[in-house]
Amino acid sequence: MTAISDREKLSYIAAQAADARLNLELETEGMTLNLGPQHPATHGTLRIIAKLDGEQVISAEPVMGYMHRGYEKLAEVRTYPQVTALVNRIDWVGSFANEVPFILAAEKLMEVEAPPRAQWIRTALFEMSRVANISLFLGDMALQLGATTPAFFAFRDREHVLNQIEAVTGGRFHPNFDRIGGLKDDLPAGWITETKRAMRKMRQFCDEMEQLVLGNEIFAARSRGIGVIPADIGLSYGLSGANIRSSGVDWDTRRDNPCGLVHSELDWKVWTHPDGDSFARFWVRLQEVRESTKMIDQLLDGLPSGPIMAKVPRIIKVPAGEAYVETENPLGVMGYYVISKGDLVPYRVKIRSASFSNISIAPWLLKGVYVPDIITILASLYFILGDIDR
Amino acid sequence: MIDATILLGELAYWQQTSLRVVGGLAAVLLIAGTLVYLHLFKLVSFMQSRLGPMEAGPFGSLQLLAEVGKFLQKEDLVPRKADRFVFLAAPFVVLVSTFLLVVVVPWGPDAWFVDSDIGIYLAMAVSSVSVIGILMAGWGSASKYSLLGGLRATGQLIAYELPLILAVIGVVIQAGTMNMQLIVTAQADGAIFGWDGIGNPYILTQGVGFLLFMIAMQAELTQTPFDMPIAESELVTGYMTEYSGMRFLLFFIGEFATAGVFSAIAAVLFLGGWYVPGIDSDDNILNVIGPLVMLTKVVGLTFLVFWFRFTFPRFREDQLQKLAWKVLIPVALANIVATGILKVAF
After folding, report:
1. Where are the domains of chain B?
2. By three-state DSSP, how is residue B145 classified?
């Protein structure tokens, strides 16, 4: 832990020195490099204005909003069941997880509770979207560092999970499956065996990535000590999810603040890493995928029988009130603040998406690093553009 | 010593020259095409659990022609602020270095382009020409990504030229000549502790040199893990960012042809070149088998290059400089000293 503050100091000194060089000693003209909005490393349309001295970054500022789709406003003219189709598209690689907190908030307002079987399946799908999402990260981070093969492995093996999600929900990317009071359908026949096989394959994939990427010395050299986030700084920027857990903060909403999902009935572990660097973020996420696959196995073993849907009226009117529900989504904590005036549509929906907060640390983190490290840091912070811009 | 070439001896000068040009083109383009198809299309696809191109021709073997056709059709864009002449000339400068490299490589006892007593020295010298082309491309494009890529490439190529040359010196000491053809025959006539069944490929005595050569070669070719100048996730494609159409194709051919030619040089220096054990080293049949043997060795060595390329992440600029100056060059110098001492001792 002491090493973090040393590294932090060093990068700060480096940034100061670069600044001084630029302004006083040599009066060299810095270069402003505009990374994005169209750039291979920004997953979409993030723009980063980086002021450089040579290859050293003096200041970097992320500019977002190129893909703002106004979901909070759009939700105000959609009925409650329709909103799930919208919020699916926020974090498009782990889309089922986006529906869950909204539905939970609506259920809280209506004071209904999904039957146990629906809750368990909901949790299983929630964790499966995490596996699908984070396994893509594992390949993507390696790709950003120049190794192409792990990315293809990730795309190949993620397909096992997506197939299982599709088998239940009918949608690979946008399931739109969660309903207020339960789920749309029950599981298809044979799904549990198939899913267990898929989870075994995902664990193999994790082993493979551990050997191919984590065991690689170049990967370690590129990511160890790069982009160190001390725990207090991370917390003050509102980081969540694996980003803060890899700084040694033992905080997981699934365990500490469970609402509506059945994680508390499972035997699992919250992984943390003391280093807080890019390597730690990769490591923690890899462990989380493995932990999620084990969770899904347990969920499928302990699946209770019973109805899939609680008694809810056919036309859903949510009583007036306010509710805030947050869950531990693949990218971090995602919360929905729903205000209802007793209408068919929500009066106001505020979405707290994880990537928006996670990217806010970028200017602090990118100060003083070199251009190649920008990519390492951004890749390790792992944001989805839809999750930033909404 | 092998005299003037038998095949070309009776032809007029212009006929010899045109034959050499055709041979050079074949040696560059054929190798580049083979490597692109075998390694970039197929090998990598199998590594990444894909099939690669399958539709054009049997097993997608005509995909290459489709790709070339595609590049030729594309518009040859020049950025408005680019230094026009420098921008347009850069790909040719890079390609010239490849063609100059292939000149010194012997493909058989008589199948070669130039009989030069400073063969390997010439090769090492002209391989640096590509740096100029890359720097021209980086500067001439008037793009920040290109500039960063070009400067990174220059720093890297110059740093890795040294271990490359120092690795070669071990072979030169052992063979006692810089003539590539004589290096092959020296290996063919050599013996391993008195047993001359397979000659004495220098990989056995110069194993360290071979490793150094392959690492430095990987860096000279700017392949991953040394592809900082291209670094598609940071610099888009580095110095090639602004190129399109024919000129991009030239860079592309240059990349793969240079991979082939460097591998050919490595095959000559360390793997015994065109020599086939059991056949007399000035037998005429080797002019036919020799190129095929060389091609096999080239494909084998480039397999290593592309295997590493698609497995490893890339180094950061300072890390790869550190590797060159703090590890490779001292090891190469130690290798030279050891070779020199052993040469005198035996």
Report:
1. 72-345
2. helix
B68: left (phi over 0), alpha (psi -120 to 50) or beta: alpha
The reported pLDDT for the residue numbered A312 is 83
Task: Using the CB atoms, write b or e for B246-276: b if 16+ within 10 Å.
Answer: ebbbbbbbbbbbbbbbbbbbbbbbbbbbbbb
Residue ranges per domain, chain A?
A: 2-63, 71-389
For residue A59, the 8-state DSSP code is E
Q: Please answer yes or no on whether B236 and A152 come within 8 Å at the CB atom.
A: no
What is the pTM for the complete model shown?
0.81
CB contact under 8 A, A222 and B311: no
Whole-angstrom CA distances from B293 to B148, B196, B300 are: 40, 19, 11
Residues A108-130: tens digit of each pLDDT: 888 888 888 888 888 998 999 99
ipTM score for this prediction: 0.75
Looking at the complex, does the CB of residue A141 fall below 8 Å from at least one CB of chain B?
no
Nearest-10 Cα torsion for B48, B53, B54, B60: -130
The single-letter DSSP state of residue B199 is: B
Question: Could you tell me the pLDDT band of residue A41, with boundaries at 50, 70 and 90?
Answer: low
Q: What is the pLDDT of residues A5-32, one digit of tens each?
A: 565 666 666 666 666 555 555 555 667 7
Domain A71-389 has CATH 1.10.645.10: yes
Name the token pair of A45: 């349309």
Per the CB < 8 Å rule, is A149 touching B311? yes
For B106-152, write each residue's pLDDT tens digit: 888 777 777 778 888 888 888 888 888 888 888 888 888 888 888 88
Q: Does B40 touch chain A (CB under 8 A)?
A: no
DSSP B238: G
Straight-line distance from the first to the last Cα atom of chain B, in angstroms, rounded to the nearest whole number = 24
- What's the order of all strands across the beta sheet hosting A332-340? A321-329, A332-340, A348-352
Separation CA A147–CA B313 (nearest Å): 4
Token reading at B342: 């052993």
